[in-house]
Design brief:
The chain is of the alpha/beta class and about 450 residues long. It has 15 helices and 17 strands. The protein folds into three domains: about 60 residues; about 180 residues, Endonuclease Chain A (Endonuclease, Chain A), CATH 3.30.870.10; about 160 residues, Endonuclease, Chain A (2-Layer Sandwich). It is about 40% helix and about 20% strand. It is globular and about 65 Å long. Strand 11, helix 12 and strand 12 form a beta-alpha-beta unit. Strands 4-3-2-5-6-7-1-8-16-14-13-9-11-12-17 form a 15-stranded mixed β-sheet, sandwiched between helices. This is Phospholipase D-like domain-containing protein.
């Protein structure tokens, strides 16, 4: 009899605690002023699977939280190289606290993995003071083994070497760190961003550092979409190597990348931020504006600038992205731009490396096609590059995918390039991608269409 009462008491306690957690999560959603789509997705999950969805919500459901354990917002410093105003996109970003575009930058586009690899290796070997590397994915393979050897050699020369790795993006290396032993023994400083096994309340597993910053002497940076593994770069041509983009900047824009890396490193290492150096002006012709986004940026400056640029476009909006799961406001903006006569193109892989993302994007792609927007499915190797052209005003290049995770959750960084040469080179590269693409999204049966539309309910969390 006593056992029955105890069992009943435990059962009711469990139910009451569950209901309280559900109420707490719903109140938290309202307090955070989440988007209706995001709220509906979480509410559906909580109603259907409350004891699974509620804990997941408190782990995954917040982004710009204030916490003494969360990476705090940082301010980037305006430099003397900043121009008055490059164009309206520059103006929107400035009004959101982003430093203006700088002149005097040398800017080189690297479209091939072999070229990116040789440039990266050359920059490591030429460094005189410091090498700061930050990546989302780092795999231990034949390509990175060579890079590790070069880093060890530079450290033995007395060069400062820092390596920042996202713990979730590089989880195999995080759980098996033996390949990093030689680096650490040589004095290379290695840190993981938000270690997975750290104290739960210090760890925001949903907020990942997706930035790729390869910085040399705090004056030259390689950045874009390429991570460090044989899938992205290497000494030899590989037919199945992913299509991606890296670019090299030498000049005052590199200073802003140094500011971002210094803040990321200080958070991950729990040490004072390293000095970002001073802006160095060159004779380059590139106007470049560096734009970080994520929980350490007070507002959604990048997303607002992206929406503004889409609405302001008069001639074209060409988008290259591996994953396309956009916010409803961005979908509406693209549809309206097409209605106005703007040439809107989406270039995306026919099949990406994430089945769930492919299923989630399908209904959005069909919606674009139904609106008359050109959807180009790239038939070559996995297309991992991220870029957008807005008229002849500028090119947005960097680590940001066109999905909610990249635009509103992850730590990201892009460069807006406003020079005619860079815009022309980006256009030529996109035209080559288009030449290897097909334009037909396979029709969906009723079951497939039902599945795709259901995926839209969880799309805000992808």
């Amino acid at each position: 009899m006593n056992f029955d009462w105890l069992h009943l008491l435990l059962f009711h306690t469990f139910v009451i605690l569950g209901e309280l957690m559900v109420i707490a999560s719903l109140l938290h959603m309202v307090y955070q002023r989440r988007t209706p789509a995001s709220m509906m997705a979480w509410m559906l999950a909580i109603v259907l699977l409350p004891y699974l969805a509620v804990p997941l919500y408190f782990v995954l459901g917040s982004r710009k939280r204030r916490s003494r354990y969360l990476k705090t917002a940082f301010d980037m410093r305006e430099t003397e190289a900043a121009v008055t105003q490059a164009n309206p996109i520059d103006g929107i970003l400035r009004s959101n606290g982003i430093p203006g575009a700088t002149s005097g930058n040398r800017f080189t586009m690297l479209f091939e993995g072999t070229e990116a690899y040789s440039t990266l290796l050359e920059q490591i070997r030429a460094a005189q003071e410091s090498i700061w590397l930050s990546t989302y994915v780092l795999k231990h393979d034949a390509v990175t083994a060579t890079l590790f050897e070069a880093l060890i050699a530079k450290r033995r020369e007395g060069i400062e070497v820092k390596l920042l790795i996202d713990a979730l993006g590089s989880w195999p290396l995080y759980f098996w760190q033996f390949p990093l032993r030689a680096l650490r023994s040589a004095g290379v400083e290695v840190c993981f961003f938000m270690p997975i096994l750290r104290m739960p309340f210090r760890n925001y597993i949903n907020l990942r550092n997706h930035r790729k910053i390869y910085l040399f002497d705090r004056t030259t940076v390689l950045t874009g979409g390429m991570n460090l593994s044989a899938e992205y770069i290497g000494p030899d041509v590989e037919p199945k190597r992913w299509e991606d983009l890296l670019f090299r900047i030498e000049g005052p824009a590199a200073y802003h990348y140094a500011e971002i890396f210094a803040a990321d490193w200080a958070y991950a290492s729990e040490a004072a931020p390293p000095a970002p150096g001073t802006p160095v002006h060159t004779d380059g012709d590139a106007y470049v504006q560096v734009v970080p986004s994520g929980p350490d940026v007070a507002d959604d400056a990048l997303f607002e600038a992206l929406l503004s640029a889409v609405y302001a476009a008069h001639e074209r909006i060409w988008i290259v992205t591996p994953y396309f799961v956009p916010d409803a406001s961005l979908m509406q903006a693209l549809t309206i731009a097409n209605t106005k006569g703007v040439d809107v193109k989406l270039i995306t892989p026919r099949d990406s490396n994430h089945l769930l993302a492919d299923l989630a994007r399908s209904s959005y792609m069909r919606e674009l096609e139904e609106a008359g927007i050109h959807v180009a499915l790239y038939e070559g190797p996995m297309l991992h590059a991220k870029a957008i052209l807005f008229d002849n005003l500028g090119a947005m290049l960097g680590s940001v995918n066109i999905d909610n995770r990249s635009l509103l959750l992850n730590y990201e960084v892009v460069s807006f390039a406003y020079s005619e040469r860079i815009i022309s080179e980006t256009e030529s590269w996109m035209e080559k991608l288009l030449s290897r693409s097909t334009t037909v999204v396979h029709p969906a049966g009723r079951l497939r269409r039902l599945g795709e539309n259901l995926m839209r309910l969880i799309a805000p969390q992808l």
